[in-house]
Design goal:
Elements: E1 7-8, E2 19-20, H1 21-46, H2 60-83, H3 88-109, H4 120-131, H5 134-158, H6 165-216, E3 221-226, E4 231-234, H7 237-242, H8 256-266, E5 275-277, E6 285-293, E7 298-306, H9 307-348, H10 355-382, E8 390-392, H11 394-408, E9 416-420, E10 427-429, H12 431-448, E11 456-463, E12 466-473, H13 480-483, H14 501-511, E13 515-521, E14 524-530
Helix pairs in contact: 1-2, 1-3, 2-3, 3-4, 3-5, 4-5, 4-6, 5-6, 9-10, 12-14
């Protein structure tokens, strides 16, 4: 919430003057405490010996009534402030006005301006500048001046007139206005300073929250430790990458290799860019070190990065270069291939060809078509664009996809069976990439593993809290020696395949933070595609 919505305007005539709520009530409580002390002193003076020449004897009853009434009003206003029975502006204005009125009566009971009690109204008008400000502060200064002059006029009326009192009253009135104005300017400056301070504080808090959000949701792990290898902070990715529930207090307790590498790096004997820590069940974690010097102490930042992610980036860089090269080669091959194919078609139209020569033209045509298919797949790979991921609800998307696939592949209706769990999380994926992946998998299942008496199962399920699509067939198992090279480019056991279908499918899956894998079982084959959760908030840096 911004400071403007936490400010109040204490006077309807001072629209440009606002005070932060906490600060305003603090001012009001402080002024109320001062009034309690002042009223108590006036009451205490009444009980002092009567020979003290402070209260005029003829006004003793007026002093008693004024001082006791003043104390009662102060206590009542203190109760209202503590319980906040009325609004701030109402209480502030009542306190200032009651102070001016009661101090005027007490001043008159003590002998007029000559008693010095009138100077106490300087504090009241100054408080008016702080509490209400603007035109209202000037209004109360004017009221105080009128009350002082009215007291002087009444004193002159009853015959107890001092010729010096009018000039003193004028000086006191000027003091009221001056102090009210100065207090208002000081309060205005304080308000602006408080507003700027509050805005800067909110900005700092927002930036800190944003930094914490980014750090905590990074895909890389961050550990901050001191010179004694004591861990001071870390983000949520660290336990996940290290395969533990939470980090210990010391680097040595994580792994001796990490602590030793940290010591070697600090002693300038560590000449590697990073070290690799073996993690059970994973490819490992790459660890980087960096210094974080501060004004009072030295800290160090240790960055953890998944080896699989690192290798994936390296592989993508290599593939990008390979794709550019193969695309150029494919373009160069396509032109002579077109000439060969066209020449073969013209030769096949010759009426004097023998059966053997006509068979040779069919071989030319078949293999020219196969080479062209390979070129098309290579060009498709080199033209791969970044994914445009969308939130997809697979319970609605998959039936539509399967209906479209069967309609585009005539003769295969009824060969697929759709199985879906009731509750599956939404995914984040490029729908065109997902369609291409499933097309490749379904076409391979029809081409290589379809069994006439069993349908291919397209299954939507949740595995380890991750949404997965499985394509299950009941054909012959893929041999182990083939599984090792299943997702390699240009590897195929078919005389008609290009060996790029599964490779492209896996590349498209990785491009969408998904994982495509093969799972053999006794009665057939299963290709599993595990997709990214639409609710994930991982920031890759």
């Amino acid at each position: 919430m911004r400071a403007e919505s936490q400010s109040i305007s204490p006077c309807p005539f001072s629209k440009g003057y606002k005070i932060p709520v906490t600060q305003a009530w603090f001012y009001l409580k402080s002024f109320a405490a001062y009034r309690v002390i002042l009223a108590s002193l006036f009451v205490l003076i009444y009980y002092l010996p009567q020979d003290i020449p402070f209260i005029k004897a003829q006004y003793l009853s007026l002093y008693r009534f004024s001082s006791f009434t003043y104390l009662l009003m102060v206590l009542l206003s203190g109760f209202c402030i503590y319980w906040r029975r009325t609004s701030y502006s109402t209480q502030a204005q009542i306190q200032i006005f009651s102070d001016i009125f009661m101090l005027t009566l007490i001043m008159h009971a003590c002998g007029g301006l000559g008693s010095g009690v009138g100077a106490l109204m300087l504090v009241t008008t100054g408080a008016g500048g702080l509490l209400v400000g603007g035109r209202c502060a000037m209004l109360f200064a004017a009221i105080a001046s009128l009350f002082v002059f009215a007291e002087q006029a009444y004193t002159y009326r009853v015959g107890d007139f001092n010729s010096l009192s009018y000039s003193y009253a004028g000086i006191l009135g000027a003091g009221f206005f001056s102090l009210a104005l100065l207090s208002y300017l000081l309060a205005k400056r304080t308000e602006q300073t408080e507003l700027i301070s509050t805005q800067q504080k909110e900005t700092i808090i927002s930036l800190e929250e944003l930094n914490q959000y980014i750090i905590q949701n990074m895909k890389s792990g961050i550990i901050i430790c001191n010179q004694h290898k004591m861990i001071t902070s870390y983000n949520e990715a660290c336990p996940r990458l290290l395969g533990i529930d939470s980090l210990p207090d010391n680097l040595t307790d994580i792994t001796i290799k990490l602590a030793s590498a940290f010591d070697a790096w600090r002693e300038n004997t560590f000449n590697k860019e990073f070290i690799n820590i073996a993690i059970p069940g994973k490819e490992g974690v790459n660890v980087h070190f960096a210094s974080l010097p501060t004004q009072h102490d030295m800290y160090f930042m240790i960055t953890l990065e998944d080896t699989a992610l690192y290798n994936q980036r390296v592989q993508q860089s290599k593939l990008a270069s390979l794709g550019f090269l193969t695309a150029n080669i494919a373009h160069e091959i396509r032109n002579p291939l077109g000439a060969i194919s066209h020449a073969g078609e013209l030769l096949a139209e010759c009426p004097d060809l023998s059966a053997q020569d006509r068979r040779l033209t069919e071989i030319i045509k078949t293999h020219a078509y196969r080479v062209n298919s390979i070129i098309e797949d290579i060009l498709q790979l080199s033209r791969r664009k970044h994914s445009r991921q969308e939130r997809i609800q697979l319970q609605n998307w998959l039936p539509t996809y399967l209906a479209t696939f069967e309609s585009e592949n005539s003769g295969h209706q009824g060969q697929f069976q759709l199985s879906m769990d009731r509750q599956v999380a939404d995914i984040l994926v490029d729908p065109h990439h997902l369609t291409q992946i499933l097309n490749n998998l379904c076409e391979n299942a029809l081409k290589y593993s379809y069994v006439t008496d069993k349908r291919i199962i397209l299954k939507l399920t949740t595995i380890y809290n991750q949404t997965c699509i499985e394509i299950i067939d009941f054909g012959k198992n893929i041999p182990p020696e083939v599984i090792e090279h299943l997702f390699e480019p240009f590897y195929t056991t078919s005389s008609f395949g290009t060996g790029l279908g599964l490779y492209i499918s896996r590349e498209l899956a990785e491009l969408n933070q998904a994982k495509l894998s093969y799972l053999p079982f006794e009665q057939g084959n299963c290709f599993r595609l595990c997709l990214a959760d639409a609710e994930q908030k991982i920031i890759e840096l």
